[in-house]
Specification:
alpha/beta, Creatine Amidinohydrolase, 2 domains, 9 helices, about 35% helix
Length: about 400
């Protein structure tokens, strides 16, 4: 925990403090920001307040009194609910406004970790509760140089597997190869390369590619044949603590793609590039930019091309130690994400157009530096010609 930086941020945001709360390991963000390990067994509520000035302090149940021992400051013990309420009042004495892992109207569900009743309990002490979403970005979702290096290394290992996966399909197509077989081949390559993933990858043929979250399985397995469209979405990180995900989607065609397929691919590709350009120009000029603006850049272009109703998800998501991270999403569709894109942010840009007989998504990862925004890894410019 970087106490000095957190308190500096609280003063900058004119907040009295940042109040952390957990019960039954509901808030993984709290443990990561505070830099403590979550015990296997958490059955009682704890609170930890970092004030804008002064020493932090906590509130712990006597049964699990040691849970915050690695953190500085006094720990107020409680057993009964009356003691808990009194202890919380004491914890918040002198404060009028605190941040918590709360999102008004659940606009940003990735940070909405605190239940409504606990928010009500804090408000009952005469304290205003505001969202910690921007603080989380700064202290949880902005990568260090070391973390960015882990992401880059993951990409260096994933990209050749992606390239070889399309070649594998082409080599096996005549004899017969299916979505599940390609998925399993990719997973074996991940293991050999020292990579791990939480799920996937997605290998979708024709209409299956038109389902953004299609999962290859035996009951729906499709064979890949000449004239087929193929989408591969893969994400992985290094198999080590703190590994950062690399998340990409590429598409290809078994043979010469017809004009309609090329048109949809080019629409998605160019929409993707509009979003990347939007970020790059803003960062280079020093203009603050929010997630919703990036979504608008890609979506407006795709709408103009007549495919707006077929673009059914946000343009991108934050990436970290989890493939869907806790930073700003590129979203003005599923939510209106007003969080700023800060230096150190890593996120996907992945517009898509999904039709009944095929679907195109083109996904890259973008990393924001202090004066520039860059894509990491290879960027798809043309459909992969499978088997040629």
């Amino acid at each position: 925990m970087d106490l000095d930086r957190i308190q500096e941020a609280l003063r900058r945001e004119k907040l009295g403090g940042w109040l952390f709360f957990d019960h039954h390991q509901r808030d993984a963000i709290a443990y990561r920001v505070l830099g403590i390990e979550a015990p296997q067994h958490i059955t009682r509520r704890w609170y930890y307040l970092i004030p804008a000035t002064g020493e932090p302090r906590g509130l712990v149940h006597r049964i699990e009194a040691g849970i915050l021992n690695d953190l500085p400051g006094e720990k107020i013990p409680y057993s009964t609910w009356q003691e808990q309420h009194a202890g919380l009042a004491r914890l918040l004495t002198g404060l009028d406004r605190v941040a918590m892992q709360y999102s008004p109207l659940c606009a940003v569900p990735y940070v909405a970790m605190v239940d409504a009743g606990t928010v009500e309990l804090v408000k009952a002490q005469g304290v205003e509760v505001v969202t910690s979403a921007e603080l989380i970005q700064e202290f949880e979702a902005c990568l260090s140089e070391e973390q960015f290096a882990l992401h880059v290394e993951a990409g260096r290992r994933v990209d050749p597997i992606r390239e070889e996966a399309f070649r594998f399909i082409g080599q096996r197509m005549a004899a017969g190869v299916t979505e599940v077989e390609v998925r399993d081949w990719i997973m074996n390559e991940f293991r050999s390369a020292g990579l791990v993933t939480d799920s996937g990858p997605i290998v979708g043929v024709n209409g299956h590619a038109g389902n953004p979250h299609y999962e290859p399985r035996t009951e729906t397995d499709s064979r890949v044949q000449k004239g087929d469209f193929v989408l591969i979405d893969m994400w992985a990180r290094l198999d080590r603590p703190g590994g950062i995900f690399y998340d990409i989607t590429w598409t290809g065609f078994c043979g010469d793609p017809p004009p309609r397929v090329r048109e949809v691919f080019e629409t998605v590709r160019d929409g993707r590039d509009k979003a990347i350009e939007c970020v790059a120009k803003a960062v280079a000029s020093g203009r603050p930019i929010c997630g919703f603006e990036v979504d608008d850049a890609a979506r407006n272009y795709i709408v103009e091309r007549g495919y707006g109703e077929n673009f059914v998800h946000r343009t991108g998501h934050s990436i970290g130690t989890e493939v869907h991270g806790t930073g700003a999403n590129m979203d003005n569709f599923e939510t209106h994400d007003e969080r700023r894109i800060l230096p150190g942010a890593l996120f996907s840009v992945e517009p898509g157009v999904y039709l009944k007989d095929f679907g195109v998504r083109s996904e890259v990862n973008v990393f924001v530096k202090h004066a520039s925004a860059i894509t990491t890894g290879a960027v798809q410019r043309d459909l992969v010609r499978i088997g040629s």
